[in-house]
C-alpha cells in the first residue's frame, strides 16, 4: 500500500502542491458617484490544494464574492497573479473557456441559477454542449445526477425546477457543475437559502465528492458553523484582506485575530459575552490607515492593545499580506506580541 492511499483527504491535501494560487491579488472598482475607488480585494494571497476544502468567511461586503469571481476568471484582477495547476491564468477567450471547465461555480440560490423553462436534463447537459462534449451525453448527465444524489437519474430528467424541492434544485446545480468533471468547485454561499436539514445533506454531499473525486473546493460563506462542518482550512476576510487563516480546528477553537474572535463570539453555542462590533461598517472606498479593523476593534477600544504597547501601531502601521500557504497566520499587532 502506498503512503498516498493511507492518508486522509485533508492530510493528502496538505501534502500536495497547490492547485490554485492567488498572489498579491487586488481588485479595484471605480468609485460610485464621486467616491474613491472601491478596493474590494486589497492584497490577498490564497492557495487551494488538491482535495482541500477552504472556507472563505467574513461579513457582507468584505469582498468574498469578488475574490471568488476572480479565481473563476470572471473578473480580471487589477493587479496580482492567479495560477492554476502551475500555469498563469490566461484571459484569452479559448484559454478561459478551457479553464472554466476545470473550475466550476456553484451559486447560492438554486432557483436563480436554474432556467425555469429548462428541464433537469437540459440544465445539466448545457455545460456539456457549451464545451462541445463528444461522448455519450445521456450517460454523462445521468452519472452527474447520480453523483449529486438524484437517483435514479432518469426519474429527474424531464422535471422542471418548480417540481423539485430546494435541496433537489441545489443538487441539480451541483450536477451541472460535476458533469464537466472539474478539479475545483467554487461555491458561493451554497446552502444559505436551504433549511437546516437540507443544508446538512448538501454539505455531506460536498464532503463525499471530495472523498470520491478528489475535488477541491472554495466555499464562500458568512457562516462559521458551516466552515467548521466542511472545511479543512479557513480564511477570514475583512475589508478586502485575509486577516487570519489556518486549519479550521485551530482558527475556530483558538481564534487569534480580534475580528475572528468577535465573529465566533456571536455564535449561539459560544461561551461568554458576545462581542458587538461598534463603528462604521467597512467601506472599501475608505480603507482606514494602520490596521484596517482598528476603528471597530474591541481589543483597541478596551485598552488591551495600549497595555500591550501596540495601540499606536494599530492606528498607524498597516499589516503585511498573509501568505496563502498552510499554517495559522494572523494579521494583528496585538496577536503578534502575545504569541
Ligand atoms: N461591480 C462592482 N462595482 C463596484 N463595486 C463593487 C462591484 N462589485 C462589488 N463591489 C463592492 O465591493 C465590495 C465587496 O463586494 P462583494 O460582493 O465581493 O462582497 P461579499 O463579501 O461577497 O458580500 P456578501 O456577503 O454580501 O455577498 C462591496 O463593497 C461592493 O459594494
Ligand atoms: S492590529 Fe490592533 S486594531 Fe488591528 S485587530 Fe489587532 S489589536 Fe485590533
Ligand atoms: Mg457575496
Question: Can you describe this structure?
Answer:
- The chain has helices at residues 3-6, 9-15, 64-71, 93-102, 110-113, 120-130, 137-147, 154-157, 166-178, 196-213, 224-230, 248-253, 258-265, 298-301, 304-307, 311-316, 333-338; strands spanning 18-29, 38-49, 53-57, 79-84, 87-88, 103-106, 184-188, 216-221, 233-238, 241-247, 329-330.
- The protein is of the alpha/beta class and 339 residues long.
- It folds into two domains: 19-29 and 37-238, 3-Layer(aba) Sandwich (Rossmann fold), CATH 3.40.50.300; 254-338, no CATH class.
- The strands form two sheets. It has a seven-stranded mixed sheet, sandwiched between helices. The chain has a four-stranded antiparallel sheet with strand order 2-1-4-5, with helices on one face.
- The protein starts with a helix and ends with a helix.
- 45% of the residues are buried.
- Residues 1-5 have low confidence and may be disordered.
- The structure holds adenosine-5'-triphosphate, iron/sulfur cluster and magnesium ion.
Amino acid at each position: 500500500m502506498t503512503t498516498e492511499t493511507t492518508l486522509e483527504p485533508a492530510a493528502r491535501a496538505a501534502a500536495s502542491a497547490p492547485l490554485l494560487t492567488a498572489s498579491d491579488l487586488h481588485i479595484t472598482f471605480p468609485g460610485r458617484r464621486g467616491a474613491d475607488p472601491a478596493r474590494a480585494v486589497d492584497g490577498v494571497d490564497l492557495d487551494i490544494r488538491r482535495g482541500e476544502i477552504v472556507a472563505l468567511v467574513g461579513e457582507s461586503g468584505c469582498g468574498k464574492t469578488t475574490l471568488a469571481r476572480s479565481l473563476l476568471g470572471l473578473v480580471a484582477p487589477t493587479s496580482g497573479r492567479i495560477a492554476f495547476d502551475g500555469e498563469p491564468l490566461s484571459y484569452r477567450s479559448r484559454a478561459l473557456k478551457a479553464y472554466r471547465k476545470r473550475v466550476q461555480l456553484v451559486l447560492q440560490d438554486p432557483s436563480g441559477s436554474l432556467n425555469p423553462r429548462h428541464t433537469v436534463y437540459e440544465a445539466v447537459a448545457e455545460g456539456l454542449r457549451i464545451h462541445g462534449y463528444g461522448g455519450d451525453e445521456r450517460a454523462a448527465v445521468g452519472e452527474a445526477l447520480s453523483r449529486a444524489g438524484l437517483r435514479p437519474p432518469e426519474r429527474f430528467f424531464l422535471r422542471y425546477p418548480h417540481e423539485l424541492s430546494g435541496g433537489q434544485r441545489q443538487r441539480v446545480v451541483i450536477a451541472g457543475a460535476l458533469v464537466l468533471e472539474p478539479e475545483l468547485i467554487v461555491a458561493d454561499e451554497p446552502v444559505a437559502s436551504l433549511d437546516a436539514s437540507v443544508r446538512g445533506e448538501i454539505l455531506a454531499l460536498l464532503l463525499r465528492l471530495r472523498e470520491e473525486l478528489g475535488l477541491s473546493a472554495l466555499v464562500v460563506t458568512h457562516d462559521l458553523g458551516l466552515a467548521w462542518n466542511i472545511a479543512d482550512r479557513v480564511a477570514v476576510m475583512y475589508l478586502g484582506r485575509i486577516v487570519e487563516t489556518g486549519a479550521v480546528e485551530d482558527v475556530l477553537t483558538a481564534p487569534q485575530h480580534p475580528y475572528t474572535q468577535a465573529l465566533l463570539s456571536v455564535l449561539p453555542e459560544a461561551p461568554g459575552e458576545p462581542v458587538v462590533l461598534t463603528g462604521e461598517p467597512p467601506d472599501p472606498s475608505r480603507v482606514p490607515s494602520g490596521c484596517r479593523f482598528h476603528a471597530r476593534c474591541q481589543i483597541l477600544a478596551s485598552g488591551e492593545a495600549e497595555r500591550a504597547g501596540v495601540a499606536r501601531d494599530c492606528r498607524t502601521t498597516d499589516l503585511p499580506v498573509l501568505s496563502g500557504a498552510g499554517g495559522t497566520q494572523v494579521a494583528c499587532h496585538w496577536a503578534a506580541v502575545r504569541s
